[in-house]
Amino acid sequence: MENTPGITKRKINIPWLFEMALRDSRKNRSRLLLFISAIIFGIAALVAIYSFRYNLQNDINSQAATLIGADLVVSGNKPVDAAIKPLLDSLGDKRSEERSFASMIYFPRTQGTRLVQVRALQGGFPYYGSLETEPVQAGSSFKNGKSALVDKTLMMQFNMHVNDSIKVGEVTFQIAGILDKAPGQTGIASGVAPIVYIPLQYLEQTGLSKKGSRINYSFYYKYDKPVNMNKLVKTIEHRVDKADMNIETIEIRKENTGRSFGDLTRFLSLVGFIALLLGCVGVASAIHIYIREKIASIAIMRCLGVKASEAFLIYLIQIIGIGIIGSVIGAVLGTSIQHILPMVMKDFLPITISTDISWLAIGQGILLGIIISVLFALLPLISIRNISPLNTLRIDYDNVNLVRDPFRWLVYFLIILFIITFTFLQLDSWLASIFFTIGIFIAFLLLTFTAWLLMKLMRLFIKSSWGYLFRQGFANLYRPNNQTIILIVSIGLSTTFICTLFFIQSILMGQISLSSSGNQSNMILFDIQTSQQKAIAQLTKQHGLPVLQQVPIVAVKLEKINGKTEADVKKDTTQKIPVRAFTWEYRVTYRDTLSPTEKIIKGEWVGKAEPGKEIPVSIEDNFSKRNHVNVGDHLVFNVQGVSMPAIVSSVRQVNWNKIQTNFQVVFPKGVLEDAPQFHVLLTHVPSAKMSAQFQQAVVKQFPNVSIIDLGLVLNVIDGLLDKIGYVIRFMSAFSIITGIVVLIASVRISKYQRIQESVLLRTLGASRRQIFTITALEYLFLGALSALTGIVIAISGSWLLAKYSFEVPFAINLIPAVILFFVISLLTVVIGLLNSRGVLNKPPLEILRGN
Predict the structure, then answer these.
(1) Cα separations (Å) of 741 from 34, 40, 42?
(2) Under DSSP, is residue 310 helix (H, G, I), strand (E, B) or coil?
(3) Bridge partners of 525?
(4) Could you tell me which of 381, 263, 261, 268 has the C-alpha nearest to residue 320?
(5) CA 454 to mean position of chain CA atoms
(6) Distance between CA atoms of 785 and 779, rounded to whole angstroms?
(7) Which residues pair with 112 in a beta bridge?
(8) What are phi and psi of 30, to 5 degrees?
(9) Are 228 and 149 in contact (CB under 8 A)?
(10) Quick one: which H or E segment has residue 301?
(11) What is the pLDDT of residues 131-150, one digit of tens each?
(12) Is the whole model's pTM more than 0.70, yes or no?
């Protein structure tokens, strides 16, 4: 019996697949490129951010020395102990000393006053970089006499010039130069706390370094020969820590700065990634329609002997090819955009950022674009495997789009895994990346459900009594091949980002404005000595201002928590008590009553101490949670060298959003009255003119007293929020642009279906004007629906943030949202009509030709 020859399997011809992919794409290349164009701006955002990140890291590495200005810095917030002085004097080959503190300064010529950061400097600091001044020589020459360097923002604000004078405490200094930039200073820092440099030798004469003054002491060291700084730090850190001082080196500053701005770039990367995900939704939807239109072509190929896997590979090659082109375009665009980022973020950066081309960022962007375009295109592509030759006779996509296809669930799994992995690389936390992915999923799900629900409702609400044009226009929202869900998701999510930003800024600024209204405190006087408090109160009343609060403040440190010291906590890793609980210096007060912003949530309030017993103290709720301390626990405080045992009698909930003195720890009366302390006075000033007059009087009579004017703080915070908002709006613009591209693509991909519908209506007698009106109504409703959904979600999200995160009343400004609503609605109509104009010009004969 002869053996029947086995049936040999035909090998896949790779060159033929590429040739077929090329041939099939000839009539569809513009459409395919439009599909992938949805991800171009997402890739551009990520490449720009990656380039910015790598350049930032390189610049931090190369400019780290200028951030700190020395090889080694030792600093503390109290005068140097005699025990540590010999060590400090033995360090470095060159030494400088600086004392910094907040203080009021007075401009005699313009009679202006301002709270500033005074830095009293001695020595050749900075050893790396320079104090950038105008004129240049002022950066070093000011130390030779009673001269000062004044921040340029102050000079402009008070219309001051070089050679004018300022008064710091009891001493008048001549302005030697304008300070453009100091080591490590940012534009925002200069707006919040402008810097004034004076020579250290005149500090005592100012009268601002009296006992009780809050001064930071810094010692800068420069080594002429290379020194192993890590080894040096390990040698001296124990003695420095024991003296309650901190150590910083160039390497430590480099790591801290890199970490801080690494967080920023990771956040921006996530914003860019969200724009990319919006584009991916557009890609999946576009390829879905594209494959739907290709069913007949694929079925014919199957009749000619093409295997299902070969048909799948033909279209996969198309997607990969177009994905490469789109990713390269996005990478080139992102490389150009990265030149803008340093300008957008210059106020946040303490260094000069270069804009070199980062090939690593370009490579990452292209690879990411290819992966993500293929990954999201796979969802509709895998249905090609289920198209049989019979589909030439019965074109029914529902029969090939099988939900139960196991490969479809594999693709879903790969997409989720990709999102979690990518966010993990940005956040460096699996838990955070999982929550981010869940948040994105919920947002998409909510928008999708909203769109689905509204489509269902539209079916119910459309009445036969409506005019034909209205019925047809609104019916298009749920017709076959409709793009309602994709547009609401993409445009709605973009709208949500922008509106949430506006709402949160409105909530925060509204809360601050509320705090400065009525008769609530809007001016704080601090650093008041005990001997001055009565005179300050009297001066306040003389100006017709109320004394709303006078509060004593004492600096203390924690020595023990339930018998455990800092050393015990460091040795026992199972302890939940954080080490920082012992290193932090707490500002506490003493009183016999609760303030209006406090309420007891645990234990019992005790306002007076009993002699011979443990001191009953009240702690704030967050302090309790952070340090794992509760009612009945025992604490030992160090009050200026004196140990004071205490017991927690109560836990308070504090409203920190109110502008008044709030404390983590409150002592009862009868304990701290004789401790070294300073006082704070709160008042309400009804006008800017009254504020200026009162500040001038205080600074002239009590130059050591510092003043915080809430009106000025409001302007600074407003400016800060505007700058932060500008950065976020800049990044969110990518989401908006992506939404517009998805809108254009969504209209274009259904153009063939629109031609058939339009020609059918024309054949039945509809005029171009009627078809134009139907299209305009559809896109007007789509745009309005998308914008409205996004705004509603933004309002809900802002309410949750206000209630549970910021814990402030929910009050927003709806004007930006209303403007955004009309802009998006109009833009959607315009784009829809522009893309549909070709449809209106198609003659009815086209339906007979089947095109």
Answers:
(1) 8, 9, 11
(2) helix
(3) 681, 707
(4) 381
(5) 33
(6) 9
(7) 107
(8) -65, -35
(9) no
(10) helix 295-303
(11) 888 898 888 889 888 999 99
(12) no
